[in-house]
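G.,

No rush on this.
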Amino acid sequence: MWSLLLVPVRTLAAAFWTNWRLLIVLLGQAASRELQEIQSDPFRLAWNEADSCTSNMLEMTESKYKKLTVNHTRALCAYSKKTPSLYKPLNVALRQSSALYSTPAFPFHTIYFWLTSAIQILKTSCETTYRRTDLTFNGKLHQVIRFGQFASSSRNPNLDFGRQTCFQIRTCLGAFISEYSNFKHEQEVLIPPYEKFKIIKILLEMKNCFRIFVLESVGSHTKLNCKVANRNQQIRASIPLIIGFQLIIGFIWKVFSNTAI
């Protein structure tokens, strides 16, 4: 989950990242699209395999995180499983398919919604986390960047997922999800694709890493020109839409799970 390349921030006009409040609109008006996503691999496989994890996590954390729904918990469990892999195709799509995001061709609207929504609920305050990779990133001092995907980081600086490029990250939008992860020892803090960071320091040829980028959170991309009924209007989500979307997904999933072979 760590070995993915950091990508530069694009201009606001080119960025499609949104917070979960805006995304609700996109999802709530596309029930047929969600049905297709639920039935497709790898979403269906990962979603089904997360059953036991979801039940266990709900029992363990019910009193602590009352705002998390079953689908929030299932999404976190499905994302953190290595087999079947959901995080790999999801993050590849997020990095490479931004132009398709507001169209039915993008296959992961549902899981993106539940993950970003869960992160919004679970995040508390800013904290320092760490990320390692064997890939090379040639960022420049004072450059503003984002990961462009769901980026796993850890409170533990000594997890060895690579020594080519390392990051010391001050995140203010990421959330500690270790209690919902299949790998609790990793002390994972999940950073959303839309959080922006400024490179405030670059350390070279350190003992345990060839290059260390020190990142400071500088906010997020939260605007999206929603291309649903009216492609030129920006639509804002409301509480009824949130409730309506949850009911739609719950109903679709119940029907599909009862009829699947």
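When you get to it, here's the other one too:
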Amino acid sequence: MLEALPSADLESISTRDPIPLQNDAVTDGALKKIIEWCEHHWDDPPLDPDFDDEKERRNEELSHWDKQFIDIPDQGDLFDIIAAANYMDIKGLVEVGAKHICAKIKGKTCTEVREMLKIHNDFTPEEEAAIHKENEWIYAKD
């Protein structure tokens, strides 16, 4: 996780030095969860940016611990954690959050996804019909 700080002189940093964060970027609850995740994963190897097989990494199962950690009942809290992890450039936690959300969305209809994510449908019936026709292959049943 420290790979994001290549120019930092880590020896000169005190454990009491504050980490400056924008107040609206990270909530207290999200920060506590991020610290918990980082403490659990402190010795993980950094994600390799040159890793050629992205598909392989995307298809890896989450660990039991990560599944329990990220299964947060309040969706707002979940998105706060993912947004804060993204802001703080904690790639591993962002990936865990993304995999969790993908698993929740998988197999759902557009309407179900909108309801789950609280997205207002601002398409007119005509626009929806045009989109449906344009992407008919998605809706085709075997």
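Helices lie at 28-40, 54-59, 64-70, 75-87, 91-105, 110-117, 125-134, 136-139. The chain is about 55% helix and 0% strand.

Enjoy the weekend,
O.
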